[in-house]
Amino acid sequence: MLTFDETFMDFLLEHQERHNRSYHFLILMNSILNAAKRIQYYYLTGALRGNLGLAGSTNVQGEEVLRMDWIANEVVKHHLARSGRVIHVVSEEEKDIIPMNVEGGRYFVYFDPMDGSSNVPHNLPIGSLFGIAKRNLEGPEDQHLRAGRDYIAAGMFVIPTGTFTIALKNAGCWRFHIDEVMNYVKPTRMDLPESRKTWELSFNSAHRDMFAEGVRNWISRTEARYAFRYLGALAGDFHRILTNGGLFMYPAIVNHPDPSKNRPKGKLRLMYEAAVVAFMCREAGGEAIDEDGRPILDILPEKPHQRTALYVGSKPLVEEIRQALHPAG
Ligand code: FBP
Question: Is there a cis peptide before residue 304, judged by omega within 30 degrees of 0?
Answer without folding.
Answer: no
